[in-house]
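Title: Prediction job returns without error message
Component: structure pipeline
Severity: low
Priority: P3
Assignee: unassigned

Description:
Job completed but the reporter wants confirmation the result is attached to the right record. Sequence as submitted:
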Amino acid sequence: MRELYIGIDSGTQSTKALVVNAKNGKVLGSGQRAYGLIKGLPAGAKEQHPETWKKATAAAIKAALKEAKASAAEVKGIGVSGQQHGFVPLDKNGGVIRPAKLWCDTTTGRECEAITKKLGGLKKTISRVGNAMLPGFTAPKIAWLKKHEPKNYRRLATVLLPHDYLNHWFTGNAVMEYGDASGTALLDVAKRQWSSAAIKAIDPKLAQALPPLISSDQPAGTLSLGTAKSLGLSRETLVSAGGGDNMMGAIGTGNTRSGIVTASFGTSGTIYACAGKPVIDPEGEIAAFCDSTNRWLPLLCTMNVTVATEMVREHYGLSHAQYEKVAAKVGAGSDGLILLPYLEGERTPNVPEGTGVWLGANNRTHRKGHFARAAMEGVTMGMNYGLCRLAGLGVKAKQIRVTGGGANSKLWRQIMADIFNAEVVTLAVGEGAAYGAALQAMWCVARKRGEKVSISDLSDRFVKLNERETARPQRKNVEVYREVQAVQDQMSASLRGVFEVHRKFVSCE
């Protein structure tokens, strides 16, 4: 009988499920269900109903099991990857109090300032939790609820993250593992324990609502009777600790040892690496996360990647193939057309009030090909800003493994290689987060059986590269992009004050 594992990736736009064979790591079945954000919210507010994730997860699992022709007895474990930082508030009965505020919600700037002030400023905040207090993180979302919806806050009994919520639905247990917990800004990442100072800065009673912490190789539990029945699976199916999408993406791309860097080019962009010790950025621009293998995951996040390219593509009515074709006709640097891609504000660098800015638009560059290529270049340079910051902290890339929609473009992969000045490769299994979740579940079951296997053993064995899609930097383009990068960095620094004035002007309107 086959031994199968299900990997779930519950994201901002859809939930994906993979059924993976433990014998050879092959994906035997997949399923996906799409959804969107709650509409009609104020500017900067990004929310979803957790019930949406449950329904999408159930549908994706059933579709994947059907394609794999899997029986309940064959499925030994489930792993869940979820979008990080989302705040899921539960009442004393385990019911959801209100929709979840997501990672991309930028309405908590004032809460970040207030918490940072109570902690004694930026440097003391970083010393106490390892990270700056940023709008994307969970802690300011909790403070926002306390300030803006006090009645709902008084009902708060349990704080969960999106992947924790799915684990809770699967097992009935409320727990949180170190990797995703480190993205709350309530965890002391070096000590792997809740920060009493950060909790006190919001509400001392909040400690009672934070779930127990577990390590990455521990199970969250087994399927509850009701969930097992609804999914057509056995109650004996083990549910691993799971983790945030970046932590699971690291496992699924084989990023489980130093020297390898993963870059995800999706709606947002992330770059992260595996580290054997905490990597704390004194400026707070690089997130000092724990990973989901019981190590650490220094990470940068930009909020604008395919957000920008899709805006240009839709504006000109192009298919993805047409977009790449017109962009390929324009040389590196887009003849001076540069995009500062802060369409949704920005997290690295921390410019929540930022907007998109085009520089260099003229009669020569005001063409669809130039805008298409400049969008690709602009968001990649935005990520390179953080990659250079990582290098300054001692985390240097020997190879960059790319995932997400942007990785599907040959032209974009070459742009990445030229801007990053590094070899860029893709993976045989493109759904890195879901695949990583399945591998973690495999690891969890093996450890429970008493097998002495490491997560690196599994990722080395199963994660395969697409050698034919490797892109290597071209010296001429590297030099062009070094100059353009300097201009974009200067634009970003110079416009911070302008963004603040602009935000106040828009608020007045």
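Comment from assignee: result matches the submitted record. The longest helix spans residues 368-392.
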